[in-house]
Amino acid sequence: MHLPGPQRVDLTYCTNIHPGETWDEVRETLAVQVPSVRDRVAPGQRFGVGLRLSARAAEALSAPEALADLRALLAEKNLYVFTLNGFPYGPFHGQSVKESVYRPDWTEPERLRYTNKLSDILAVLLEDEPGVTGSISTVPGAFKDRVAGPADVVAMATAMRAQAAHLVDLHRRTGRTIVLALEPEPCCFLETVDEAVVFFRDHLYADPEDFAAQAGLAPAEGTAALRRHLGLCYDTCHGAVEFEDPAQALAALAAAGIPVAKIQVSAGLRLPAVGPDTPAHLAPYGDEVYLHQVVVRGADGALTRFTDLPPALAALDGQPGAEWRVHFHVPVFLEDLGPFASTQPFLRQVLALQAAGPVTPHLEVETYTWGVLPPALRQGDLADNIARELTWTLEAL
């Protein structure tokens, strides 16, 4: 939905909350689930969609008749699409995802092919209005263990710049502006804003004249084109789990000229102090579907990272009194989670900065874990809970 203000800002939720890998399943989500949420939050209004398309669905929508069907459905339901979630390539619900969610990554050609298809689809779906931009959030390079050395870093940057060149061509042909938005995440190649700033400076934004030649632009246009089409998706759960300072992180991006194409409105788990009862308290969160990275801050301020809850719990005896933050998306409207808290205060700080800014044109609630949340946190109807998250976000803004 459009938010009031002098600059165009859109708020929605991501449809990766709903299971659905095929075009038929996505169609059902758009026909039934999304309008059900919209009618609880903004009845009678046009409602923006943060659309998640798997590679399988994107392939189906490459057919002109399927894409025309999607456009007709959006018009019928009074919906519009302004951002895509291009992070999970394959299945995302109902089976173990864990580290496989990052594959194929940006070292593998299929990631570029998939993202190019997504951008082609989004260029057709974007509203034809002045100032409208699209965004596609994506894997932050690769899972960290997959990056063997400098050659892999160069390969990822080369593929991302190739995608940016594709976006330049789309802009030339359609007039639509789309930003590829890398999403830093714990235990990935890009974990933090500081790492992202270095990667953008040394690789993505480097050699603008070479990029201009690649994209068919005048040499002087390379820098502007790179900064127009390559940016960041700031997931507030990820930033909080990394113990970032919201104001400092966003200021660093602004100073580096990196656009925040999208903020994913999310919250994780916060354990201000751990002890003997921690394993029992975390047991309900130990699902076998998603990866739940843990970042531990010791008394000296040093950070220790674990790729999932089991190895963190195994090392618990060596971390007495430390603060833990866990990458497990929980409802953004909850701060008190019983034996521990959520990172909602971090999210509130980001939204306050957005209200004063704005920082980004795209806001997307992304609590994709409703199917694996402990029962005490997912009582009631799913549409009611999503609507409650959107309403909370509006109030926080």
Give a brief rundown of this model:
The protein is of the alpha/beta class and 397 residues long.
Number of E-state strands: 13
Structural class: alpha/beta
CATH architecture heading:
Alpha-Beta Barrel
Give the DSSP E fraction (strand runs of 2 or more residues).
15-25%
Structure characterization notes:
- It contains 14 helices and 13 strands.
- The protein has helices at 23-41, 55-61, 64-77, 109-125, 150-174, 193-204, 208-215, 222-229, 236-241, 246-255, 278-282, 309-314, 344-356, 382-396, and strands at 10-13, 47-52, 79-85, 133-138, 177-182, 230-235, 260-265, 267-271, 294-297, 303-306, 323-330, 341-342, 362-365.
- The two termini are 14 Å apart.
- The relative contact order is 0.13.
- The strands form two sheets. The chain has an eight-stranded parallel sheet with strand order 1-13-7-6-5-4-3-2.
- The longest helix has 25 residues, at 150-174.
- α2 (55-61) crosses α4.
- The protein is an alpha/beta fold and 397 residues long.
- The mean pLDDT is 95.
- It has a single domain, classed as TIM Barrel.
- The chain is 42% helix and 17% strand.
